[in-house]
Amino acid sequence: MSAPLPQKGSGQGMAGMPSQQQTHLPPGSVPPQSQMPPQGALREFSPVYLCRIGQETVQDIVQRTMEIFQITRATPLPNGVTQSQAVYQDRFGKLQEHLRQLALLFRKLRLLYERCVEMTSDLQPGPTELIPYVGEEMTPVPVEPCSPAVIEERQEVLEKVRQKNQEMKVLMDQMRNLLWDVNAMLTLRK
């Protein structure tokens, strides 16, 4: 009696990524096909869908990391108090499992990233740097001449802003003088 061979790619997700839903099956059993899409369908995912999977993977990574922190926070320091060896072994096992899952999630994230970069390499390249370095020459942006109505409206807005700034300056000076007087009176009372 020979065991059926597992199908190609049955233990992996997209493009060789380990599946998060992979369960340990007894030897000789075939994983259900409902969990894995056909191999051709894997190549038809859009970069947007892959980015959403990547976002969910990052959320899983954060969740696993928080669980690791909770386990380590709940573990008492070995300060001479004897605790049950079984409790330590259980926590150590949980910690090891979370670390193993984290490694798998980071591999999955790396593969998603590489696949997205591969799929979007032919798109229009974005700016290499959003903020230029100091001393780097800026390329001037061509400015089209505005209509006279726009120029007039801009002048009106600038004049309103100047007036408001002047009013704010007067109010700030009055508040400063008032605070100065209050502080002077408080020091005279003492």
UniProtKB/TrEMBL annotation:
Belongs to the Mediator complex subunit 30 family. It comes from the Eukaryota. The keyword Oxidoreductase does not apply. Keywords: Activator, Coiled coil, Nucleus, Transcription, Transcription regulation. Residues 151-178 form a coiled coil. This is Mediator of RNA polymerase II transcription subunit 30. Pfam families: Med30. GO terms for biological process: positive regulation of DNA-templated transcription. One of its GO terms (molecular function) is transcription coregulator activity. Residues 1-39 are annotated as: Disordered. Component of the Mediator complex, a coactivator involved in the regulated transcription of nearly all RNA polymerase II-dependent genes. Mediator functions as a bridge to convey information from gene-specific regulatory proteins to the basal RNA polymerase II transcription machinery. Mediator is recruited to promoters by direct interactions with regulatory proteins and serves as a scaffold for the assembly of a functional preinitiation complex with RNA polymerase II and the general transcription factors. It is found in: Nucleus.
